[in-house]
Amino acid sequence: MDKIRSSEITEKRVYVNRRAFIAAALAASGCGLVDDPRLIAQEPAVHGRKLMTVKSALSTTEPPNPWEHLTTFNNYYEFGTGKDEPARNAPRFKARQPWTIAIEGECAKKGTINLEDVLKGQTLEDRIYRHRCVEGWSMIIPWVGFPLGNLIKRCEPTAKAAFVEFTSLHDVGQMPGQRGDVLEWPYVEGLRMDEAMHPLTILVVGLFGEVLPNQNGAPLRLVVPWKYGFKGIKAIVKIRFVEKRPVSSWMLNYPHAYGFYANVNPQVDHPNWSQAVEARLPSFFRNTKTQMFNGYGDQVAGLYKGLDLLKNY
After folding, report:
1. What is the pLDDT of residues 38-71, one digit of tens each?
2. What sign does the CA torsion over 221, 151, 224, 138 have?
């Protein structure tokens, strides 16, 4: 299936997001007030509780973007295709309690688990990661999470489990973007098992030491820092261990642009633009050279030894 024309995707994003991008840049630089009510950031501590965390040795030393950038400029198609739409639409989302995750497929410990039970005994880490979006912008984000590998070990996957498939919540009543057909719903993503078990790969429950805001993927999302941002599936409700490679949502809907691996590779262009340079928010100028594997090559390049990264994008 390839029902999304590249021209439609590009023009809509440019049209919808230009004001949000420039307004965020002006706000950060102190050049003016942001008078657009759609860009009001969700305030810290809105959930009424802080998260107990420890610092991670895996963090970048780069200074993170401020809270207002991270909560008003988001990719989250369940709440709209514009970068400002999640900040407007997601705060009304009410996550079900308890939040449950179905564990299925090739594993010994199948069933349904509560997020709170998953978090018991986990050490939550502050991890400052680079975030690179395929549209050509990037941020430095202080996530709070724990290694995905910890949960995988608990599920006891069998020898047949070569991949991990993730599925997000499907709730048309609360997620207005799911009323449209820009993607097949629910959103699905996947990782190879060795990618999923890598210590850089985390399940995220917080941001800046706070409980994760809705527009950033609450209550549970995936972060794989050497891959493009669309790999970071949000509001996860199912994890399935499978023998064959899953077909992710963007592979299904726009395979010419979005492959399974989604590794940041400046040598592989999107059909509509170069990936060789990026704009580091709040700047909207593409004057930052894109690093292979988003700068995490020393840690992850070995995962892809012998794999043609121009074909396996």
Report:
1. 334 445 544 456 899 999 999 999 999 999 999 9
2. positive
